[in-house]
Amino acid sequence: MTTCLILWNSATSVEIAAGCGCKCKWWPWRRKDEIRMSGQGNPNGNRSRRALITGITGQDGSFLAEFLLARGYEVHGVVRRASTFNTERLDAIYADPHNQGVRLSLHYGDITDGAALRRTLDRAQPDEIYNLAAQSHVRVSFDQAEYTADAVATGTLRLLEAVRDYTVAGHAVRLYQAGSSEMYGAARPPQDENTTFYPRSPYAASKVAAHWYAVNYREAYKLFICNGILFNHESERRGETFVTRKITRGLARIKMGLQENLYLGNLNAKRDWGYAKDYVEAMWMMLQQTEPGDFVVATGESHSVSDFLDLAASYLGLDWKKYVKEDPRYLRPTEVDCLCGDAAKARAKLGWVPKVTFPQLVKLMVEHDLELAGQETTLTKAGHQVAQRGASQR
Ligand code: NAP
Ligand code: GDD
To answer: Is residue 238 within 8 Å of 245, Cβ to Cβ?
Structure first.
């Protein structure tokens, strides 16, 4: 056990005793206090570690919440008010807050509402924050550019400002910022932490801004912030307007005779697709390091949209060329042709490696969506009216 003294300097907000040699400089929250550090233990006392997740209702947020709960964390999530339920992905872990010992708490808020974010920090008192909230659809960002910038770029800045004040008030916290391989855009593959960003959409440009805000706050205020530069990751919980899920949902419904065609855009684009469950683990690993840093998380393999179609259709015994039609509305004004990540740094420093392979990923998504299509068929045959899910323009 190491003991060190942290000094408070009101001029710079946080000043760290030089040369103490322990790992405490990333926990600069107690004024003139003696702090005892022990390995990765929680420096905020003996209570369970607390995590706050923005975007908890999304694909990654739901997997991350499960992952953290399984590790004994108390998990807090920011949820947007919606006229329909938007917590479906949390159903498996949701518990009535009136019950004893519930470790998942949801707070109404929005990444565009700084006051609510600050209040949530005060209530949740997190040790770790995962900023996953975003308008995350690239094609939609061309239609809603200002909103995308507000949520993705300025939203991150709002959260960083709140976190800065939270640490000044004496709290220790570590922050994960959800960066994206889209930031590389037109940069030639393979892409790693040293590749220059070349964003090709309002979404990607906003993620680049968020990335640099995070770097700046890390350097300016000595905050423990990690940028994860995650390449595409998919799952059975993937939003139904992203291409992988659109394909597995569409082909499974075609197989069951529930729809005739599947309309897609550019089939030549290549992506480095991994499994979302593997990727949320990398987020957590970044925040357990002794020093903050930026990490590419990827499989290192790239496949085209038509490769994905080939594999998904082969699991279903279909010839996709009979059913897939091209629709220009799904094309982007500027496309990202090929993403392929080099995750050597994450492998070396975090010990992170993807577990699920590309064929396994496609298979698990197809199996899941075949089951959904089966349920839809059973209900329809029994005379029930079933609303078509995923009926979207994107
Ligand atoms: P997702 O499924 O689209 O989830 C996005 C989450 O953000 C949802 O919970 C959504 O809430 C929430 N959100 C949207 N606008 C918000 C706002 N104004 N205020 C508060 N919350 C808001 O995305 P994901 O795939 O889980 O990705 C998580 C993060 O990683 C995102 O930042 C994304 O840009 C980034 N990322 C994703 C990938 C990938 O391949 N999945 C790769 C790199 C980076 P609702 O449920 O209410 O819509
Ligand atoms: N969505 C969609 N719909 N994409 C299509 C379609 C279609 O009908 N047809 C072809 N595509 C092509 C797109 O043009 C793109 O080249 C590729 O499929 C992947 O599109 P998406 O699945 O929408 O994902 P993305 O790569 O644009 O963005 C996702 O990954 C990023 C990480 O690189 C999102 O999750 C982003 O939030 C994330 O940052």
So the answer is: yes
- Name the residue of 138, 139, 208, 230 to mutate for ligand 2: max ligand atoms within 8 A of Cβ: 138
Decide: 74 in ligand 2 pocket, CB within 6 A.
Answer: no
User: Cβ of 386: how many Cβ atoms within 10 Å?
Assistant: 13
From the list 157, 163, 112, 107, the residue with the least C-alpha distance to 135 is: 112
Q: Are 152 and 210 in contact (CB under 8 A)?
A: yes
Q: Please compute, for residue 21, the number of CA atoms within 13 A of its CA located in the half-sphere on the CB side.
A: 3
Q: Using alpha carbons, select from 31, 46, 26 the residue that is nearest to residue 163.
A: 26
- Using the structure block, give the residue that is written with the tokens 């004893």: 100
- pLDDT at residue 387 in the model: 78
Amino acid at 44: N
- The contacts of residue 322 (CB under 8 Å, 6+ apart) are none
Token pair for 232? 């595409």
**Which residue has 């200002």 as its token pair?**
146
Q: Are 260 and 323 in contact (CB under 8 A)?
A: yes
User: Residue 73 in 3-state DSSP?
Assistant: coil
Q: How far is the CA of 361 from the centre of ligand 1 (A)?
A: 20
Mean pLDDT of the chain: 89
Question: Is this structure's pTM higher than 0.70?
Answer: yes
Angle formed at CA 243 by CA 199 and CA 94, multiple of 5 degrees: 100
- Decide: 245 in ligand 2 pocket, CB within 6 A: no
Question: What residue has token string 């629709």?
Answer: 327
- Give the bridge partners for 108, in sequence order: 79
Question: How does pLDDT run across 268-320, given as a tens digit for each residue?
Answer: 999 999 999 999 999 999 999 999 999 999 999 999 999 999 999 999 999 99
The span from the CA of 27 to the CA of 198, in Å, is 34
**Which is nearest to 54 in space by CA: 141, 170, 160, 184?**
160
- Centroid of ligand 2 to alpha carbon of 52 (angstroms): 27
Between β-strands 74-79 and 50-54, what pairing exists: parallel, antiparallel or unpaired?
Answer: parallel
**What number does the ligand 1 atom closest to the CA of 182 have?**
43
